[in-house]
Every structure is written in C-alpha cells, then in structure tokens.
Amino acid sequence: MERLENRHDLNTQTAIFEEIGNSLSIADLHKRNLERIMANSVNMTHTARSQKLPPDKLIKFLIAAEGGPLAKELHRAGIDATPAAVSQRRRQIPPDVFRKVFLDFTSFSAYSQPNRGYKGCRVLACDGTAVNMARNPNAPSFVCNNSAPKGYNQLHLSPLFDIYDRTYFDAVIQPAPRKDEPGALVEMVKRNRFNRKTIIVLDRGYEGYNVMAHLMNTPNVYFVLRVKHNHSAMREIARLPMLELDCDISFTISTTQTNEDKRNRHIYLPQPKKSKPGSTTRRARWDFPSPYTMRLRIVRFQLDNGSFETLATSLPRSFTVDDLKEIYHQRWGIESSSEV
Predict the structure, then answer these.
(1) pLDDT one-digit tens code per residue, 203-244
(2) Residue 174 burial (CB < 10 Å; 0-12/13-18/19+)?
C-alpha cells in the first residue's frame, strides 16, 4: 500500500474555499469533487466496461446507496440493471480503487481547513464500530456462537477520524471474527506519512506496549491514551500513588527472561513460538528489538465524582494537564461520527 503524502494540500483547499465563496452549496461541492475524483483518480482501463454500469457510475451508486434491498436501491437511482449484474461488476473493481476514491474525496472535503486542530496539531481519534451485513454463512464475516446459534454477518470498522475537520483520515475493515483494533491502528500508522504534527487519541482498548512504541517511532505523531490504573494496569503505572500527578516513567521491555533481565526488572513479554511481526496475538505482539527502553508521561486527574482518570502520552509539557483533558474529551467526536 502506498504511503500517503500531502493529504491536505494547501492549493487544493484554497480552490475549495473560493468555490464556497462563490455560493456553491456544500452538497453541490461534494458532488463536483466526487465527479472530479472519478474522472482523474480512478484508472479502470483494465476492467471490463458496461454501457449500463461503467465503473464510475457503479462506484457513485455504491457510495450513495442506502440500506434497502439492492433492487430497490437500483430503482431509486434510476439504473436499469439487475442486482446480479451489480454484484458481478462490483467484484471486478479492486478494493484499492475504493480506497483511492475515499482518500481523494476526504482530501477534497469542504470542511477540511489548513492547520485546523489543537495548538496547530491535527487531532485524530481511533475507535472501532460494528457494521452488520446480509447473512452469508460462507463469508469470512460470519459469526456463530452460543448467544447467536443461527449466526449473522458482521464487519468491524476501525477508522482514524479527524476531530476538528470532521472527516475520516483512514480506515481498516476486518471480518468481525478476526477483528483486531490495535493491529488496524498499527496498519494505518505504518501506511501513512504524517506531514504535520498529529495527536492520536485512544481509549483503553488500544492500551499496549506495541501500539505505543509504533506511535512513538512515527515522525510527527504523538498520542494521548487513557490507561487502566487498577490491579490490571501496566506494572509501572499500577505502582504510582492514586492521586493527581504529572510525571515521567521509564521501563525496559524484554522478550527474554534471563537472570540479568530479572535483576534489571525488565517487563517480560513472552512471545509465542509462531509469533511474528504483525501477528494477531495481541498481548504478546512485539515488533521491536529486545531489550527496548520506553519513556512515558503519565497524567492523572480527579473527576467531579471523586474517581480518577489516567492518561499516558508522548506530548511534551508545553501541553498542560488542562490541554490533555480537552484533547481526550474531544475524542468523543468519533462516537457520534458514524451516526451522521
């Protein structure tokens, strides 16, 4: 997968704002941008063409379709084609084409503004959500267990959502039985180039040494991660006193357990014999050398109800505790983004 540069090109955005200034509605602007993208970005010369369903027409239909039966959606769109023909044509379009359309379209977004964010940083939130599909027992997305003996189909969507632009920066879709939110985040971080300072905000589901190491080793990327502080917390965090604080901690991770490792109190991450970089073994996943020293800033603050929240971050102290509270609070924007 290509690494992405200039996701928010200044010249492109200037042209967009000029169009808005010329009283073009947001809906018309999005329509014009999509037509521009379909004309310039999607190379489908290798795909069989159909007078009824050329690739650009099919992709626009799939983007605009709602949740009704396919035959009903085709009738609503005024397309004289059978559901079987649509399914056949859909299979001829490589997934990378849809990714290209998605990335180009979000880059042209009318809501995207240069340098918009928090203290000059883009703020991205990552959180997973389930997407139900039509039942198909033969599909990789089929889920069958004691609570659902008849089974159902479900995909798991893990997006990176720009809190201030209200646009999706990237996304990974996985079959629900093989969902792996930390792995999806690592994949998105690795395949993008961040051309401006970016803060990635995460909830406890992403708590892990491997995720934090990937974020800290990516240029221009910082993170704010809510972590546990009870008996199941990371060892060095669990040892901190339960009071408001802003401190630095340092520890060493090791995939071995030699006597020297034990004397130096390394954190041991056992590696399964068949484990490899990118493995879906979440807790033991480790893509870096051993031993590996990690330094974190830990911020703990008390809520109005008397309970505490603990954040791990790689941000410098030019970002105050109040800044971190505000940044994490903004993460809730991703919770409502899929409801729009």
Answers:
(1) 988 999 999 999 999 999 999 999 998 877 888 998 999 999
(2) buried
Contacts of 116 (CB under 8 A, 6+ apart): 122, 164, 165
- Other CB atoms closer than 10 Å to residue 122's CB: what's the count? 24
Q: Which two tokens stand for residue 224?
A: 């704010």
**CB 212, CB 25: distance < 8 Å:** no
Do residues 124 and 199 lie in contact, with contact meaning Cβ atoms separated by under 8 Å?
yes
Q: Do residues 216 and 229 make contact, with C-beta atoms less than 8 angstroms apart? A: no
Q: Which amino acid is at 53?
A: L
**Amino acid at the residue 77:** A
**Reported pTM:** 0.80
Structure-token pair, residue 123: 């703020």
Angle at 233 between CA 230 and CA 239, to 5 degrees: 75
Is 98 exposed, middle or buried (CB count within 10 Å of its CB: 0-12, 13-18, 19+)? middle
CA–CA gap between residue 338 and residue 171 (Å, rounded):
13
DSSP summary character for residue 316: -
- Number of other residues whose CB lies within 10 A of the CB of residue 329: 10
Estimate the share of the chain in helix, then strand, then coil, as percent rounded to the nearest 5: 35, 25, 40
Q: Which of 176, 198, 191 is nearest to 131 (CA)?
A: 176
Q: Please, which residues have CB within 8 angstroms of residue 44's CB and are 6 or more apart in sequence?
A: 55, 56, 93, 97
